[in-house]
Design goal:
- There is one protein chain.
- This protein has about 110 residues and is of the alpha+beta class.
- The chain has a three-stranded antiparallel beta sheet with strand order 1-3-2.
- The longest helix has 13 residues.
- The radius of gyration is 14 Å and the shape is globular.
- The termini are far apart.
């Protein structure tokens, strides 16, 4: 297990202090998603979501995977046990995923 420095922990907590980024993390807790899905759910612009995802990626909290022309994002918090309690407290986002065209938690 990696021992994180106070600086790394502080940086991660700062990233999660933003409502939009915390909401994105809650969505990604349910499943891997592409930017267009997140834009649809948050009802915001693609550049806005992309900027937040970029910060989360640079901070090491999300993975980026390219599939064809789409880029999918997933959580990268397994090696950050200090975030476990925060992630466990995030509300379930399944209702936001269900009923949206092409989106589901399964």
């Amino acid at each position: 297990m990696l021992v994180s420095t106070i600086d790394e922990m502080s940086d991660h907590m700062k990233l999660l202090a933003d409502k939009t980024r915390l909401t994105i993390m809650a969505l990604l807790k349910e499943r891997e998603m592409c930017v267009c899905d997140i834009v649809d759910i948050l009802e915001t612009s693609q550049p806005n979501v992309s900027q937040h995802l970029k910060k989360l990626k640079l901070g090491g909290l999300v993975h980026e995977t390219k599939k064809s022309q789409w880029v999918y994002y997933s959580l990268n918090v397994e090696d950050k046990p200090y975030l476990e309690s925060v992630m466990n407290q995030l509300p379930c986002m399944k209702s936001q995923l269900e009923g949206r065209t092409g989106l589901s938690c399964d």
